[in-house]
């Protein structure tokens, strides 16, 4: 049974301590499918998902992320990479510099929401050395790392819903 998407948005939060329990393959597949269902400019889908279960590779990725140990602690980490050249073919420099990153970030968010809906906790990591990440996962140089998601069953106490700015503080309606 999955949660309502609005509950997922309101309740999900970054988890850094995970139980050492495998994620069932059908569940992991559904999370990856959610990434594939993300919208993208021109439907180019300029993303790649490198799913890491190997402890040695996770250690290298954690090093490239300035020793963020939740990577090694999580049963699965996903390195999410963009292919700027794919977006460049249709949209030029703006596609390569912006659209592919936006598209790939949306895919990552889809995966976070799907994971939470399926009872899997996540942690988005954006601080890393891109070159070291590429090397750790043996990605071709044309791909650019955008985010790393740690996935697993939480080993942390439940938290109250996170505080957010009010709609009126971040919204301007133009008539």
UniProtKB/TrEMBL annotation:
This protein's record includes keyword Flavoprotein: yes
This protein's UniProt keywords: Flavoprotein, FMN, Oxidoreductase
Protein's UniProt keywords contain rRNA-binding: no
Gene3D superfamilies tied to this protein: NADH Oxidase
Cofactors (names): FMN
InterPro entries in alphabetical order: Nitroreductase, Nitroreductase-like
Domain of life: Bacteria
SUPFAM superfamilies named among the record's database cross-references: FMN-dependent nitroreductase-like
Domain (Nitroreductase): residue spans on this chain: 12-72
A Pfam family annotated for this UniProt entry: Nitroreductase
Annotated GO MF terms: oxidoreductase activity
Family affiliation: Belongs to the nitroreductase family.
The protein's name in its UniProt record: Nitroreductase
Source organism of the structure: Pelosinus fermentans B4
């Amino acid at each position: 049974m999955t949660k309502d998407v609005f509950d997922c948005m309101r309740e999900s939060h970054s988890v850094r301590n995970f139980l050492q329990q495998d994620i069932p393959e059908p569940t992991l597949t559904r999370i990856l499918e959610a990434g594939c269902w993300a919208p993208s400019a021109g439907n180019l889908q300029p993303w790649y998902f490198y799913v890491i279960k190997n402890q040695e590779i996770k250690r290298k990725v954690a090093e490239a992320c300035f020793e963020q140990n939740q990577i090694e602690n999580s049963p699965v980490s996903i390195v999410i990479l963009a292919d700027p050249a794919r977006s460049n073919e249709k949209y030029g420099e703006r596609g390569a510099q912006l659209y592919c990153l936006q598209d790939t970030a949306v895919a990552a968010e889809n995966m976070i929401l799907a994971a939470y809906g399926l009872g899997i906790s996540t942690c988005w990591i954006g601080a890393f050395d891109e070159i070291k990440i590429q090397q750790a996962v043996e990605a071709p140089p044309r791909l650019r790392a955008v985010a790393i998601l740690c996935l697993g069953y939480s080993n942390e106490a439940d938290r109250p819903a996170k505080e957010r700015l009010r709609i009126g503080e971040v919204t301007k309606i133009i008539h």
